[in-house]
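Deliverable D4.2, example record:
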Amino acid sequence: MSEPRELPQRIVVFGDGPLGVLAAVALRRALPRTEVVVIAIPPDPAAFAERFGTALPFTNRFHDRLGIEEEDLVRQAGASHRLVTRYFGGNGPAWQRAAGYGAAIDPAMKTAFAREWGGGPRNAETGAPPRSLGEVLAAAGRFAPPSGEADSPLAEVDYALRWNVPAYRAHLIGIAETLGVQHERRAVLSVVPDSDGGIAALAIDGGGELAADLFIDCSGSGAMLLSKMPGARWVDWGGQIPSRAVLMGLSGEGILALEDRATWTPLGWRWELGGRDGRLAVLALAGEADGAAMRAALGAEPSALVPFAPGRAEAPWLGNVVALGDAAAQLEPLGGIAQDLAHRQLALLLELLPGRTVDPAERAEFNRRASMMADRACDWLAAHYAAPVAVARFPGLVCSAELDRTLDQFGRRGRVPFSEDAPMLVQEFGALLQALGRPQGEGPLALAGDGSDEHLARAFEARAAAAVNAAPPYGEWMRQTMAG
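Output generated by the structure prediction step:
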């Protein structure tokens, strides 16, 4: 019978941005007897997993697991809900489609009748029939988070959150303080190596060393701890994702929109992130452009231009150092995929949490799965550049073998194959490809012609009507929630 292994006595989180504080909260929850220390460092402008206030639905469930209440985020961190991302121009100037979340987003869309949904569009604004309950609710401007009751008309609606980044960080800091997480504000001068290829301690400004059993690198794109480990190498995604800089601008007053927007421009994809404190426009740039062209494509006055190099760490866990967020993988922030990946890798660390002595098998499994997550997130972004209009603009891009297989199966059979540890469901990836204007083949269900397609479409229409009737106007729900 094996003896329980000794737990870490101290864990140091290097970086006190939102991801670093969230990691400290998660580790303290998982190991209440372990001392957790967060090291303050200057913010990294290219830490896209830190500076954008949104993620994908996985984060909602992860927040729940960590005791971070969604209602508190709405009241204290400016949070609001996103049901879909609407894509413009993916298959030409007049193209509009929406991509939603969850396994119920294409409730019959593999049938010929349901794609037409009774012979034509039911929503003139979208130019196509709604393909999810989320899209129906977003068009109606009605939503409230599902109550949890299984028979609720909103039970199958999945959604993402947006938030104000400084307020979100402040809220997490409050939670961390109640858990006893320590915050060290002195600068780190150097790394003291151990005899096993890891870190024994950090030399701190003013004298002394901060020793730990495990170090979490949340330092951003510089990977300030992981990069010092023997064997640290970077996998370049430059052949798959053409963007090399991100242009940002905040404009307008706060809005309560249940959708965000992604629009193809002559310079690349523009992502418009709605929020209660303003509309954030983000433009992924792949080449040189003058100021007037960038302002026109961004649709706002630029406030920051951040260069970056897409790629990932070959092994995000080396020795006793684990990299998360942009220290582990750099992705443009379109749709919140960078934050989603960071939170998934933090959740994986909790699943494989080491004892005081790192088990090489656990470390290898983390590296295997975290790398697959990152590669599939890269494929999700690369699919945007496989859209019909984008292919003409970037003809030299190379798809990974996994993305090639996905595009082939979608084009020939109308399906998306399963990928281990992919950050998105096959239904969500299929909805994305539809929204991007990729041609979709017809599978056996569409070719059967047995009449079941009409029945499925009518059932979806009934569920959509019930969901709209069950959900209040979103502004009304927000006012009531803020009033307590």
